[in-house]
Amino acid sequence: MRFASCTGKIEISGIRKCFEGAGPGAINLGLGQPDFDTPDHIKRAAIEAIERGQTGYTPNCGVPELRAALAEKFRRENKIQCSPEEIMVTSGASEALFLAIAALVDKGDEVLIADPSFLSYAELTKLVGGKPVGVPLDEELRLSSEAVLSKVTDRTKLIIMNSPSNPTGAVGTAEQVRAIAELASDRDIGVLSDEVYEHFIYQGEHISPARFSDNVITVNAVSKTYAMTGWRLGYLAARGCALEQLLKVHQYVQACASSISQAAALAAITGPQECVARMRDEFRSRRDLLVNGFKEMGMDLIVPDGAFYLFPRVGDGDAVAARLGKAGVITVPGSAFGAGGKEHIRISYAASRASLEEALRRMRDIL
Ligand SMILES: Cc1ncc(COP(=O)(O)O)c(C=O)c1O
């Protein structure tokens, strides 16, 4: 078989490689998923959907009740004015990211992404023939409008924002988010805002760029918020004309998201939200546990305000992650997220407190 040149340019995720060769008893701080189970009321809604026979295709953009609930969620939580017709339900945030990039990026178009950032942004851009352009972060590991502006050219088609960020945990300030949304709007550049960690913020506030501009596609998912990564259920909000373009891709690559997961997502979005607050409080205390442990070790660390990652500066991130792996603690070298991350490692605290305490003991000698 002869494969397309675009797939040849794509790398297998550097994160997966970190798990290979991990011995038994290794503590895995490499994973980007909550270690909690999906709340019971959400599981029950899925079981009931199966028993009701809700097992066929749904409308391409999702069941009407879920689209209506998501439009209401965007209005209430994100101050984004949108109608149910401007919502699409997708197979995870991953599919929504792909749809947006595929619908917007032509061969040779430049896509501005934070360096370091979540791996998919650069790889999906390359998959469609676009050119990812890394934007260095500021000292607090945030994306500033000045840095973004310095990378804008005639070919810039899209700016990808991700707050709270994977891998840094940084949360963009209202001023930064607004300034980037406005500079994009002024130049008719699209913005793709990946907000999957919006509910895991420990300081500050989540601000959606779509509050300030119509040029934004807002991507989210129930994956992280409700501990539902395996249900593969995401969604996006885009202005009507943009949604139509995205639909052209979605209907052929996916047809619709899982009918059962949509029933579960409806229960998640419209049901009690205490489960989210409980997870957020637990993540906050785990973050504090690690931050205090690292401070005692004298590590160079910016305390992250969100998500469930720490991104300490450790010198040679590849070498340190390899040494930690041998000592039985799996982390991800920052270089996996872009050259700008090469002096860092990413540590996920989506692991039990007992594991984090043991990991700190093992890390003490190496860090
Ligand atoms: C920033 C970010 N966006 C998107 C995703 C993918 O989300 P989903 O599982 O809903 O496809 C992840 C998963 O790790 C992520 O960290």
Written account of the structure:
This protein is of the alpha/beta class and 367 residues long. It has two domains: 5-38 and 274-366, Aspartate Aminotransferase, domain 1, CATH 3.90.1150; 55-270, Type I PLP-dependent aspartate aminotransferase-like (Major domain) (Aspartate Aminotransferase, domain 2, 3-Layer(aba) Sandwich). The chain contains 13 helices and twelve strands. Strands 2-8-7-6-5-3-4 form a seven-stranded mixed beta sheet, sandwiched between helices. Strands 9-12-11 form a three-stranded antiparallel beta sheet. The chain is globular, with a radius of gyration of 20 Å. The N and C termini lie far apart (46 Å). Residues 32, 92-94, 118, 162, 166, 194, 196, 221, 223, 229, 234 line the site of pyridoxal-5'-phosphate. Pyridoxal-5'-phosphate binds next to α5.
Itemize the secondary structure elements and their pairings.
Blueprint lengths: L4 H4 L5 H6 L7 E2 L11 H13 L11 H15 L8 E4 L1 H13 L5 E6 L3 H9 L3 E6 L8 H7 L4 E7 L11 H13 L3 E5 L21 E6 L12 E4 L2 H14 L5 H12 L3 H23 L12 E2 L6 H10 L2 E2 L1 E2 L11 E4 L4 H14 L1
Parallel strand pairs: 1-10, 3-4, 3-5, 5-6, 6-7
Antiparallel strand pairs: 2-8, 7-8, 9-12, 11-12
Helix pairs in contact: 3-10, 4-10, 5-6, 5-9, 11-13
The protein binds pyridoxal-5'-phosphate (PLP).
Order of helices and strands: HHEHHEHEHEHEHEEEHHHEHEEEH
Mean pLDDT level: 95
Q: What class, by secondary structure content?
A: alpha/beta
Question: Helix tally?
Answer: 13
Range of helix content: 40-55%
> End-to-end span in angstroms?
46 Å
**The CATH architecture of the largest domain:** 3-Layer(aba) Sandwich
Strand content: 5-15%
Low-confidence stretches: none
Q: Report the C-alpha radius of gyration, rounded.
A: 20 Å
